[in-house]
């Protein structure tokens, strides 16, 4: 399955969750429901995969992405009224930290589901 097909499936799962629940729940509720939908369509995923963060070769902490799907796409969920630049920056940083080509930022908090695709700025090959 190529990246476009994979993102299409992920977006479809997120849309089903949003259409069923609407907005207004906490992020963790959407995360659990999205996990159910990803499983239904046969996508392999890891929830809240921890990643070490280094600065100048020194371990400075860890971060957790909401999902790593098919070992290819990082998915970060939000449940806010409007996505802000800080949310986009976080998603971009996660894609770099996990050394993946692409990530999705999905917001369940708005009345309409919001998707943002983010790319790894360090990826030399591109998509």
Detailed description of the structure:
The chain is of the alpha+beta class and 127 residues long. It has one domain: Lambda Exonuclease, Chain A, CATH 3.90.320.10. The protein is 36% helix and 32% strand. It has 3 helices and 5 strands. The chain has helices at residues 3-21, 27-40, 85-97; strands at residues 45-55, 58-69, 73-78, 102-107, 114-119. The longest helix has 19 residues, at 3-21. The radius of gyration is 14 Å and the shape is globular. The two termini are 14 Å apart.
Instruction: Please state the oligomeric state of the protein chains shown.
Output: single chain
List segments where confidence is low: pLDDT < 50 over at least 5 consecutive residues. none
Mean pLDDT across all amino acids: 92
- Tell me the radius of gyration: 14 Å
Strand content: 25-35%
Can you identify the CATH class? Answer: Alpha Beta
Total DSSP E strands: 5
Would you list the SSEs in sequence order as H and E? HHEEEHEE
Largest sheet: 5 strands, mixed
Indicate the CATH topology.
Lambda Exonuclease, Chain A
What coarse outline follows from CA principal-axis ratios?
globular
Describe the strand arrangement of the main beta sheet, using strand numbers.
1-2-3-4-5
What keyword list fits this structure?
Lambda Exonuclease, Chain A; 3 helices; alpha+beta; 127 residues; five-stranded mixed sheet; 32% strand
């Amino acid at each position: 399955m190529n990246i476009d097909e994979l993102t299409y499936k992920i977006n479809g799962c997120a849309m089903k969750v949003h259409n069923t629940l609407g907005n207004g729940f906490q992020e963790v509720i959407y995360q659990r429901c999205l996990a159910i939908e990803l499983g239904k369509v046969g996508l392999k995923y890891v929830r809240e995969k921890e990643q070490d963060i280094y600065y100048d070769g020194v371990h400075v902490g860890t971060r957790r992405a909401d999902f790593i799907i098919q070992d290819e796409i990082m998915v970060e969920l939000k449940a806010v009224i409007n996505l802000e630049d800080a949310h986009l920056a976080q998603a971009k940083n996660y894609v770099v930290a996990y050394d993946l080509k692409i990530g999705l930022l999905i917001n369940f908090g708005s009345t309409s589901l919001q998707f943002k695709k983010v790319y790894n700025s360090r990826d030399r090959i591109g998509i």
